[in-house]
Task: inverse folding
């Protein structure tokens, strides 16, 4: 809408996001922190299979730190089968993958497959097991594929919310258009002419002062300085600041009481 | 070493991993959960600038859930400058990037640059601000670049350990050789001959039973079945199971008391 600042819009809840299914979660707090991680990463379809401490849960709501729409939309099921009945493709998160023949995917690859499945009209879900034991074999068998998060071998234990966050993060990132690298600040970059005028003025001034008096080295020095300022990708505003700096650097020092450190 | 099971080796602590610098962290618990996230992702160089509740911290150790080597190796500094003095490249994590002209990177791009910097002998660090306020402008100015985690706009608030986990995860993933997708279970895939023998037997048996009696459709049906079993990427062991299944499917049903459901 016109006049709407993007900082004022609420969190996004994309309709093609996968469902998060927590099987027999033990603590309300963990459901809450998982819901917060879902909110952070654009997920909102939370399904709980036999939560041990019941539902709704005040502790879950408090731990969700404002992801109320996820908590409010959560649905409770009495079996994993019921929780996944409407889904077309189910992944199971597990660190153990030695005991059954299944595709094992990284979270990144799973994220791509989830988006492809959504693009052709399917709906995916991701199963997470109880905090202490993880998913049992029955639940792993139900899944089309397993997702294992690559972590430091010998120290792979993650809490539930951390696991939800990493899976959600990969899903969100797969659809995110954030540039890999950009310059912040919103200033317009200087034109090439502004940049050349600045370098000309700097060179002239350095020549006047004798800094470039070693004739043979002068071209190299100027080239090095040009590359240095080039790398900084200066804005027009910054070039003005540098012009001012050059102007002031040739003055004699003020007495201390007249100085001001910005 | 010969006979060493990879599951028995301890967590890895790669020497080229970046330092994690927590500036004025408030709660020991948060330092501990951040240390755990570091352990999960192969990071071990933890630096604390003026931790509010002092150091060492029993609460931090408890919250680290076994990442004792990270806690034991932590060093305390009285300024950010002192904490980053030996580093060649420093990134600052921040959600705010509108007020200064700086390169802003995704965690993935930062991870690549950190590994490139390490490959040429440099050492990187990543600054994280206090829980409530984040890094102040002075600390942002110190950094060579900013890292902003792409998250759901309108719900970007992450706790400290979550932020450390995502940055560490991208760093770990950038050096991780886990296949994007593989079949777990360790069974050898069937040879093409084993697969063909199975399909021949199945086709023969289906032909005997009359399933393929619609002459014109038979080739299509066989092709569909072949594709179906092909997609399953069967192991030799599974093909043996299927041979047994075909054999038994032609028998007459046992009386209920003689059945056994595996």
Result:
């Amino acid at each position: 809408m016109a006049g709407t600042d993007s900082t004022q819009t609420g969190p996004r809840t994309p309709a093609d996001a996968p469902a998060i299914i927590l099987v027999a979660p033990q603590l309300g707090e963990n459901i809450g922190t998982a819901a917060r991680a879902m909110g952070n990463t654009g997920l909102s379809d939370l399904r709980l299979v036999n939560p041990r401490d019941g539902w709704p849960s005040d502790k879950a709501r408090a731990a969700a730190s404002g992801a109320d729409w996820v908590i409010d939309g959560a649905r409770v099921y009495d079996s994993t089968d019921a929780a996944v009945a409407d889904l077309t493709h189910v992944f199971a998160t597990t660190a153990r993958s030695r005991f059954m023949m299944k595709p094992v995917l990284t979270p990144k690859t799973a994220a791509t497959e989830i988006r492809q499945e959504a693009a052709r009209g399917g709906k995916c879900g991701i199963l997470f097991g109880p905090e202490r034991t993880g998913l049992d074999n029955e639940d792993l068998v139900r899944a089309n594929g397993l997702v294992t998060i690559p972590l430091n071998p010998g120290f792979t234990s993650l809490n539930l919310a951390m696991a939800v966050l990493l899976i959600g993060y990969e899903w969100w990132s797969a659809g995110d258009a954030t540039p890999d690298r950009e310059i912040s600040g919103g200033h317009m970059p200087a034109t090439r002419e502004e940049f050349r005028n600045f370098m000309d003025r700097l060179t002239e001034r350095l020549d006047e002062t004798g800094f470039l008096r070693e004739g043979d080295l002068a071209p190299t020095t100027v080239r090095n300085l040009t590359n240095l300022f080039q790398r900084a990708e200066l804005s027009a505003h910054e070039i003005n600041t540098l012009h001012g700096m050059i102007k002031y650097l040739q003055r004699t020092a003020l007495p201390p009481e007249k100085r001001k450190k910005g």
About this structure: Confidence is low (pLDDT under 50) at residues 1-8 of chain A. Chain A touches chain B through 58 residues (CB under 8 Å). The first strand of chain A starts at residue 19 and ends at 23. The beta strands of chain A are 19-23, 46-49, 75-77, 89-93, 103-105, 124-128, 145-147, 181-183.
